[in-house]
């Protein structure tokens, strides 16, 4: 039997020297929606998750092929196993063990159910899981449970975090920001101080799936207010803070650094490298559809028929999304079009054009002049 070649430790992480040019050939993150089955009924669910598994889900053998494909990238990405609820797959632990056995760093985003027990988390740790990620969307149970559609979800999430800490499994906490919970931003940050994740990731709503109706995204002014808080907290927080589908946070940080430099006369050369839909990010659905991200549902291939490496590097849409000169509207003439580029998923969700201007950014760059 042939030996399986392990991926090298050039694995994908910005802290390991990922540059913008690397995104032309390799994603930083490969999301694999292993199933759409889920018992939660989240109001914002991108996948519009269903009670039962799809009969055409990629098989366990296909999942291993997907891991093998990840190893073929020049810089193998982190594999993020998501759903639905990945724990609904009975072969989940085996797939994680296979991925980590090939030196693919693997993260997991399960639903907060009783399946994620202390024993299950210990098995994840033993299988080599790099990080567990769960969601807390409010600082108190009623609002969080209402958002997730299941009473007791908030308490179960806190129990999962306690078990992960006990098992010494690193964890991150995700949070979706909507009009309904934006006023709890300070209270949730205080909660994070007690929970102490390795990373707090804030997701800015994209109008797709269940979020297309009944869940309102925040305004462009609200974005700037939250950016200011995140920047201040990042300077003093014991855990890392990042945004998802808010690439203009990088513009905010760069402008803040520039302003600080002008005031202090101290040069601050902070190299920001960030992903965007199709640029450092790739998504494979439960039935093998390949998208630039889970929030930009324009199919560019089908796995395992199509090579993930080939789709990422050569798909016309992926290539356009990585070319800032293809951007339209004010994003196309913005000084930060390469660093930021605006959320391509939000542009598509609002306008139907993935290259249109970011609809929730109020910034006007120097080259564009005052409004």
Name the CATH superfamily assignment: Aldolase class I
State the separation between the terminal residues, measured CA to CA.
67 Å
Strand order of the largest sheet: 7-6-5-4-3-2-1-8-9-10
Quickly count the domains: 1
Low-pLDDT residue spans: 1-15, 264-269
Bulk shape: globular
Q: Kindly state the percentage of residues in helix.
A: 25-40%
If you compute it from the alpha carbons, what radius of gyration comes out, rounded to the nearest whole angstrom?
20 Å
Average of pLDDT:
89
* CATH C-level: Alpha Beta
Strand/helix succession: EHEHEHEHHEHEHEHEEEHHHH
Number of helices: 12
Range of strand content: 5-15%
Give a short account of the largest sheet.
10 strands, mixed
Summarize the structure.
The protein is 33% helix and 12% strand. The chain is an alpha/beta fold and 371 residues long.
Structure description:
The chain is an alpha/beta fold and 371 residues long. The chain has one domain (14-324): TIM Barrel, CATH 3.20.20.70. The protein has helices at 60-70, 92-101, 118-126, 141-148, 153-166, 185-195, 220-236, 248-264, 308-314, 316-321, 329-332, 344-351; strands spanning 29-33, 78-82, 106-108, 131-135, 171-177, 199-204, 240-244, 281-284, 289-291, 301-302. It has a ten-stranded mixed beta sheet, covered by helices on one side. β2 (78-82), α2 (92-101) and β3 form a beta-alpha-beta unit. The longest helix is centred in the middle third of the chain and has 17 residues, at 220-236. The chain is globular. The protein starts with 28 loop residues before the first strand and ends in a 20-residue tail after the last helix. The model is unreliable at 1-15 and 264-269 (pLDDT under 50).
């Amino acid at each position: 039997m042939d030996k399986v070649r392990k991926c090298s430790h050039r694995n994908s992480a910005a802290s390991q020297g990922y540059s913008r040019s690397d995104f032309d050939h390799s994603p930083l993150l490969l999301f694999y929606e292993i199933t759409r089955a889920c018992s939660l009924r989240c109001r914002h669910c991108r996948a519009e998750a269903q009670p039962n598994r799809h009969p055409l889900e990629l098989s366990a053998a296909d999942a291993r092929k997907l891991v093998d494909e990840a190893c073929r990238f020049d810089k193998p990405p982190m594999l993020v196993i998501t759903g639905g609820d990945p724990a609904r797959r009975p072969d989940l632990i085996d797939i994680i063990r296979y991925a980590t056995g090939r030196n693919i760093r693997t993260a997991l985003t399960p639903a907060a159910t009783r399946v994620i027990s202390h024993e299950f988390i210990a098995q994840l740790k033993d299988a080599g899981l790099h990080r567990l990620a769960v969601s807390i969307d409010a600082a108190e149970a009623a609002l969080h449970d209402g958002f997730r559609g299941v009473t007791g979800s908030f308490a179960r999430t806190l129990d999962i975090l306690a078990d992960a800490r006990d098992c010494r499994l690193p964890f991150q906490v995700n949070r979706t920001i909507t009009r309904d919970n934006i006023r709890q931003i300070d209270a949730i940050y205080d909660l994070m101080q007690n929970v102490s994740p390795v990373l707090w990731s804030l997701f800015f709503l994209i109008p797709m799936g269940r979020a297309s109706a009944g869940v309102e995204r925040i305004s462009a002014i609200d974005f700037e207010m939250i950016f200011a808080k995140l920047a201040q907290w990042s300077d003093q927080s014991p855990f890392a803070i990042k945004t998802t589908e808010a690439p203009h946070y990088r513009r905010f940080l760069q402008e803040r650094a520039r302003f600080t430099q002008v005031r202090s006369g101290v040069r601050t050369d902070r190299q920001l490298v960030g992903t965007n839909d199709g640029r450092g990010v790739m998504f494979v659905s439960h039935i093998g559809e390949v998208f630039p991200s889970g929030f930009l549902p324009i199919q560019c291939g089908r796995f395992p028929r199509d090579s993930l490496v080939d789709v990422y590097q050569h798909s016309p849409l992926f290539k356009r999304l990585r070319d800032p000169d293809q951007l339209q509207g004010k994003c196309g003439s913005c000084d930060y079009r390469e660093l930021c580029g605006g959320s391509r998923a939000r542009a598509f969700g609002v306008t139907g054009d993935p290259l249109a201007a970011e609809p929730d950014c109020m910034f006007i760059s120097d080259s564009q002049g005052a409004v």
